[in-house]
Design goal:
The chain contains 2 helices and 2 strands. By secondary structure, the chain is of the alpha+beta class. Strands 1-2 form a two-stranded antiparallel ribbon.
Length: 97
C-alpha cells in the first residue's frame, strides 16, 4: 500500500492558510479493491463552489473510458444588440484648406 505521507503533508500546509479552501482526492489502486480518501476544508459560504465540484464529478462519472483531454473554459456569451463599430485603420486623411 502506498504511503499517504505526501497527502498528509500537503493537507497540513493547506490547513495553515486561513483563507484557502481545498478538496484533495487520493485514489489508491489495490489488487482486490481500490480505495479513495477525500480530504476537504470549505467555508460555510462555499456551497456554490461545492455544487460546482459535485456537478464536475458527476460529468466525469458519466464519461466513458479514460479522459486525457483538458476541459476548456466555456466561451463567454455574446451580448445581444449592435456589434461594435470597427475602428478605421491607417493615417487619417489630410484636411483641405
Amino acid at each position: 500500500m502506498p504511503s499517504m505521507d505526501f497527502a498528509y503533508d500537503l493537507i497540513e500546509k493547506l490547513d495553515e492558510e486561513a483563507s484557502v479552501d481545498y478538496m484533495i482526492l487520493v485514489v489508491r489502486k489495490g489488487a482486490n479493491q481500490d480505495k479513495v480518501d477525500l480530504f476537504y476544508k470549505f467555508d460555510a459560504e462555499s456551497k456554490k463552489t461545492l455544487k460546482q465540484v459535485k456537478d464536475t464529478i458527476n460529468t466525469i462519472i458519466l464519461e466513458e473510458g479514460d479522459s486525457e483531454r483538458k476541459q476548456k473554459a466555456k466561451p463567454a456569451k455574446k451580448k445581444r444588440g449592435k456589434p461594435a463599430a470597427k475602428k478605421k485603420r491607417g493615417r487619417p486623411p489630410k484636411k483641405k484648406e
